[in-house]
């Protein structure tokens, strides 16, 4: 089921009433300590619905242990993606906030052929020590996992990001939004350097819901879901 509890992933489903075209399934992944229902409470779901987009939303809340023990990819695949594909969804997007951004990256690193696009809002790319390594190396592209103190999950997401940014494939598309006063902004700026300017938005905010909602609305206005995702199968 797309709605319920399974493999330590709590989800809630929001159906769009819009018609036309292949429907998008948007999986929203929150940061640590944030419940799945907060996406609706803070206007993230309504921002999609008020634009009349044919997008069904799964707001998910994976248990923190899934990140710690490295099973987040399997949990998302079994609890959300596999049932979604069985129901006929062909266009899959992830929206990740903070730690959820890393979850979106990790899943896509293993199943890029099934993901049309990613929206990362203030994504957690690594602890301060890992970000310091990126800075010392001269940026994301020149960082090497060899000898790095980064965790397994940090390495996996960063190495995949390097590959994606080097190849610049049409899919999965990657959009980034962050507050300029966010405590993780140093890492966000390094990622932004490698993305098309039209896929990056910033506001004068921190690491909070007001900032994320403002960023999300700006990104929705950029119509990231307009193109049909021909790579998703």
Account of the 3D structure:
This protein has a single domain, classed as Alpha/Beta hydrolase fold, catalytic domain (Rossmann fold, 3-Layer(aba) Sandwich), CATH 3.40.50.1820. Mean pLDDT is 90; it is low at 1-7 and 229-233. An eight-stranded mixed beta sheet has the order 1-2-4-3-5-6-7-8, sandwiched between helices. It has helices at residues 38-41, 44-49, 64-68, 72-86, 99-110, 128-137, 152-167, 185-192, 209-221; strands at residues 4-6, 9-14, 24-29, 55-62, 91-97, 117-121, 173-179, 200-203. The protein is built from nine helices and eight strands. With 233 residues, the protein is an alpha/beta fold. Helix 4 (72-86) packs across helix 5 (99-110) and helix 5 packs across helix 7. 38% of the residues lie in helices and 20% in strands.
Highlighted features:
single chain; 233 residues; alpha/beta; eight-stranded mixed beta sheet; 20% strand; disordered N terminus
Fold topology:
Elements: E1 4-6, E2 9-14, E3 24-29, H1 38-41, H2 44-49, E4 55-62, H3 64-68, H4 72-86, E5 91-97, H5 99-110, E6 117-121, H6 128-137, H7 152-167, E7 173-179, H8 185-192, E8 200-203, H9 209-221
Parallel strand pairs: 3-4, 3-5, 5-6, 6-7, 7-8
Antiparallel strand pairs: 1-2, 2-4
Helix pairs in contact: 4-5, 5-7
């Amino acid at each position: 089921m797309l709605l319920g509890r399974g493999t330590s992933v709590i989800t809630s489903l929001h159906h769009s009433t819009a018609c036309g075209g292949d429907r998008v399934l948007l999986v929203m992944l929150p940061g640590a300590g944030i419940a799945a229902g907060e996406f609706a409470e803070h206007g993230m779901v309504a921002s999609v619905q008020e634009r009349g987009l044919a997008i069904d939303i799964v707001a998910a809340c994976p248990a923190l242990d899934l990140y710690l023990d490295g099973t987040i990819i399997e949990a998302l695949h079994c609890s959300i993606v596999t049932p979604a594909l069985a129901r006929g969804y062909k266009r899959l997007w992830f929206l990740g906030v903070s730690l959820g951004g890393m979850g979106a990256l990790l899943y896509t690193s293993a199943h890029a052929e099934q993901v049309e696009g990613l929206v990362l809002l203030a994504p957690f790319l690594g602890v301060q020590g890992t970000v310091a390594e990126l800075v010392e190396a001269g940026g994301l592209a020149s960082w090497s996992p060899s000898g790095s103190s980064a965790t397994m999950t940090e390495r996996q997401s960063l190495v995949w990001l390097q590959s994606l940014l080097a190849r610049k494939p049409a899919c999965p598309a990657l959009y980034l939004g962050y507050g300029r006063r966010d405590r993780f902004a140093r890492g966000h700026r390094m990622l932004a350097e490698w993305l098309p300017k039209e896929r990056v938005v910033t506001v004068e905010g921190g690491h909070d819901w007001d900032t994320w909602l403002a960023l999300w609305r700006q990104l929705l206005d950029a119509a990231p879901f307009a193109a049909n995702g021909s790579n998703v199968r």
